[in-house]
Design goal:
The structure is a homodimer.
Chain A (H helix, E strand, L loop, with lengths): L3 E5 L7 H8 L5 E5 L4 H8 L4 E2 L5 E2 L4 E4 L4 E4 L1 H11 L11 H16 L3 H10 L2 H15 L11 H21 L14 H16 L2 H9 L4 H12 L4
Parallel strand pairs in A: 1-2
Antiparallel strand pairs in A: 1-5, 3-4, 5-6
Helix pairs in contact in A: 1-3, 1-8, 4-8, 5-8, 8-10
């Protein structure tokens, strides 16, 4: 049976296992969910909410529903680890790297967080009207800031660009440490998927000239990494 | 010839390669340097300063001077990587982990930073008078805060404890991901040295009852990890 995966359209910020499923040659079906439909749809299939720091519940994507095992898994890293232990072929956590890649995920998200209000603003621009309204309202609560102020052109936007560039400069230093195109040199892993998923999101939501700027950094390394990961993941 | 390593006494926050040298069975000589003597001593042996964000120079420990190659290396990660590429036996960056362990170092330091004013205060208490005066004055500039306020008992100190505990809770999640006592399961690495060096520092500078508290977390996992790393590094 074919696993089902629920996604918000079109952001794949949390869409890492899209690549993971492709890499492992697992057929899957995607159901795109508009933001306001997320909670009712997740309840319908029996997926559990996660908890905010204040204890209230939130329903987040992606969700993996695997009819082969009956598993319902939320949270990107949990899904990746679920896939790894359930489908052994073509590991994405080779070299005893599970702990290290968890830490890597955490540090990359931290770096992204210093810049991500900018792509979040761009994301809102390509959503359908219903989702956009929901997305904007929930982000205003999340960031306690008016959405139009989130990454206002001028100093704020420049700071987000600076932080975005810093994220990739730092990532470059890490990638340079081993010989080969992946973070673990010649060993492809979920760490590369984490970076590629961010690139995928940026490419998808940013304006062309904005993506081109990122694509020009480090002699085109990041555009190339995204292509390489997509290829490695069977053209997903 | 025997490599020389310059250290501040008694903080080993940056003393990771103390373990690394031990692990690789490399004999070495330690020269303990009082803080005010650091810059002149480093100039004397020809060690270069590093740069602050504002471009001014600072002299930081540790420094490795290796008479076998003539190398003078500062910065813990640089020293570790220097040792790895110069002395091939008993690798500390196995499994193509150089990039991942750099990222790990960064995320651990970030977590520590949210708590480290507390052990910094305790460090000042065991320094010799000359070093203590220097240490306190430079930290007041660094943190733009009176030293007595840095981790004042009450809310601030509690916050530091909370953050310290969070650092170890998070580390525990990473360690749990692979089978075995090391972060990469049964593969010892510089990642374990990073954690052990923090533990060593905490054990050395905190009051007994404070260290006992940390040693009690996660069924004694952290006290045991420190012992395990010390053993693995040949009793250094």
């Amino acid at each position: 049976m074919i696993p089902l995966i629920l996604y918000d359209f079109p952001s794949k910020l949390e869409g890492n296992h899209w690549f993971a499923l492709g890499y492992k040659n697992l057929p899957f079906r995607v159901e795109w969910v508009e933001y306001p439909d997320l909670a009712p749809r997740m309840k319908e299939i029996g997926a559990k909410p996660s908890k905010r720091l204040d204890g209230t519940e939130k329903y987040t994507l992606p969700v993996l529903s695997d009819p082969n095992t009956g598993a319902l898994v939320t949270d990107s890293l949990e899904i990746a680890e679920y896939l790894e232990k359930t489908y052994l072929d073509k590991p994405i956590f080779s070299n005893k790297s599970k702990g290290l890649i968890r830490a890597f995920d955490s540090v990359v998200i931290n770096l992204l967080r210093a810049a991500f209000k900018f792509p979040i603003v761009r994301t809102s621009e390509i959503l359908n009207a219903r989702s956009a309204e929901y997305y904007i309202a929930t982000r205003e609560i999340m960031f306690e800031e008016k959405f139009t102020e989130l990454s206002a052109e001028g100093l704020k936007r420049e700071e987000h660009w600076t932080n975005l560039e810093r994220m990739f400069n730092t990532s470059q230093e890490w990638y340079d440490k081993e010989e080969g195109k992946w973070l673990m040199g010649d060993v492809f892993s979920y760490a590369d998927i984490i970076v590629a998923a961010i690139l995928f999101w940026l490419k998808r939501v940013l304006h062309d000239n904005e993506w081109e700027k990122i694509a020009s950094w480090h002699d085109g390394k990041w555009a190339k990494l995204l292509v390489d990961v997509e290829k490695e993941c069977n053209g997903v």
